[in-house]
Structure prediction request, 80 residues.
Amino acid sequence: MKFEDALKKLETIVNELESGDISLDKAIERYQEGMLVSKKCLELLDKAEKKVEICLKAKDGSVKIKSFKEKDHNKDKNNI
Prediction:
């Protein structure tokens, strides 16, 4: 499942639960499903974060691999 698909499904579940137009049993089922989808979203985000790396070329020509962090990204943007 793609992240975008999982997120859409989670949004649908949340909207359904917030509407209040479903029975308690159905609400519990949807809540449980939502928790599973939420966990999947977190797993997909974690995998994506691990894949995103920034290659920084040092003055000596070596390449350093550094995990992408938002603060690092903003710092690099400010240097442009």
